[in-house]
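Case study 2.
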Amino acid sequence: MLISALIFGLLGSFHCVGMCGPIAFLLPLDRKNSAKRVLQLLSYHLGRIFTYALLGFLIGLIGKSLNLFGFQQQISISIGIAMILIVLIPTKFFNRYNFSKPIYKAVGKVKKTLGQELKKKDPFTFFTVGFLNGLLPCGLVYMAIFGALTAGSAWRGSLYMALFGLGTIPLMTTAIYLGNFLNIKFKQRVLKVIPVVVVIIGLLFVLRGMGLGIKYISPSENVALPKISTKYNCH
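Prediction:
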């Protein structure tokens, strides 16, 4: 299922350009020294990926705990169904309930710090901006976090989110160098494809949780538990 992380990243980067593009465009890159500019941009992407990997590690720990209690398959099915419902349920329904209100203050602090960092030009500025950028609310990131939850371990959850971040790099980098280079019609077509991909991946999560014994798609999750002997030798 790790391949789904790259798919989310590649397709989600079209969304990222729209949401995070303004921040990326304001990066104080060195326009005179190309080598230095590449290093600055790399530092920015590393900051984002570090945040995603950290979130994946923490979510993966939760997933590992659920796996130990035998809930991994149920979680995979539940997350798959949730992905599908989020796409199928009209946006107007979600607009009635402001789920993100409790974290508004935290997001406000992140944005304020971002604004302060964008004015600096020290070596750590770009990594810090990338790190904070990764903390901003994003629907595609939430979807990737769902995937990390089913990874089964902290390191796999971290890897899942890191792959998601890697998938966003090509288009984000191109956008930073060339600006708003994609025409509106092309963006609209890609944005229409994203929900379809989310539904397909949601179905894959459901199949994975069902443990039908299909290699790579729905492997059996039955784990043989060690047998504990109840016989004791008395001397």
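Residues 222-235 have pLDDT under 50 and may be disordered.
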